Amino acid sequence: MLRIILTCIALTLCPAGAGADSFPVEIQHRFGTARIASAPKKTVSLSFIGHDFLLALGVKPYALRKWYGTDPYGVWEWGHDALGDAQPIVMQGEINIEQIAAMEPDLILGQWSGMRARDYALLSQIAPTIAPRVEFGDYGTPWQEMQRTVGLATGKSAEAEALIDRIETRFETIRNAHPDWQGATSVMVWAGQTGAYTDRDIRGRFLEDLGFRIPESINERGTLDNFYVLISAEDLSPIDVDALVWIDAGGSAPVLNRMHLRPTLRAFAEGREVYADPMLSAALSHSSPLSLDYALDRIVPLIEAAMDGNPGTVVPSSRDAGILPERQ
């Protein structure tokens, strides 16, 4: 498990004031330092998942960048209660500097945004702008780091730490209850393009937090900004693991039934495939404190069914998606 328990100095998220939630605060990142003079009142989230981390702290974004899905405000089911009746401005596609400038924000969150140096140079003239830290790359920031940063930037560090502690404790409880998962191999694979997520990705880290191990055959092919490894349809051996989780962003279940070499996988033959439908896949892909609760509620029983040692046990999600072997 990648457990991020770092001090203020190690995180380089050191408040300039005396208290944990006092302002101003300074947050270091790949392009420099963001200095936030006072508690922000109009926050723009350019991160594809950053609004979840704001909502988890009770902060409603003034504007957010929609990733995918049908919700008009880009917020998935697990965030609806926190969003309430707020109607944030929704941005889509590439970062639009002029649109953001017109909003006159007092904080711009850019972790998990793909922000380039030229974007930052302009955005930071509009408002304090937080890019990812260099060691995490564009889309590799762990959820704990995301939440800590958002907490410090919004004056809610204590609330952020409480959220992190609660979710990490939940993972620990699940690990303790499933000793057979510890060290077993697992990987999440997007069925649409047959690509596996490395341990640099939040989906890979989710499995590690449950005690599973991502195979080195996957991790060694990843880089700082290449957290997703394509798997050849002619050789599925890199994903022949103890617990195989299929990610579906929408419409991928039929693809699995057309995957000719899938029956050669042990997970297929022994009933150890877990199908994550689009809602569960989205929760895993956001990996915020809000979506992690949802994801754990749903996926733990599915993995338990897959890992019970009985090939005849039906994994409900795989049955419902129609991807079970005919013998089942």
From TrEMBL:
Q: Does the keyword Signal apply?
A: yes
Q: What sections of the protein cross the membrane?
A: none
Protein's GO biological process: iron coordination entity transport
The record's keywords, sorted A to Z, are: Ion transport, Iron, Iron transport, Signal, Transport
Mostly located where? other
Residue ranges of domain Fe/B12 periplasmic-binding in the record: 42-307
Q: Where does this protein reside within or beyond the cell?
A: Cell envelope
Keyword Nuclease on entry = no
Stated family: Belongs to the bacterial solute-binding protein 8 family.
Query: Which PANTHER family does UniProt cross-reference here?
Result: FERRIC ENTEROBACTIN-BINDING PERIPLASMIC PROTEIN FEPB, IRON III DICITRATE-BINDING PERIPLASMIC PROTEIN
Name used for this protein in its record? Iron complex transport system substrate-binding protein
Natural source organism: Ruegeria halocynthiae
